[in-house]
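REQUEST FORM: STRUCTURE PREDICTION
Request ID: SP-0412
Submitted by: Lab K.M.
Chain count: 1
Length (residues): 73
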Amino acid sequence: MNEAVFFNPGDAIASSHDFKEARRSAQIIKAERPTGRQIVIAENDKNGVYAVYYADSAKQNHAGEAHHIKDKI
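STATUS: Completed
RESULT:
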């Protein structure tokens, strides 16, 4: 998972400075709002904040901020 993926930070459904807390938030979101959409936890390359996004909200045109995917749920 070394490839940079671009997300708009405003599309984040949760964020945290702690990976374990971000993962816990993603698990809660997945349990409370069942959907077929995949959830990813990505680390912002600029500030190191972990954010939770729906995988399909990634930007293909390099718009937004660069992140690296750390986990998929």
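NOTES: The mean pLDDT is 91.
Reviewed by: T.R.
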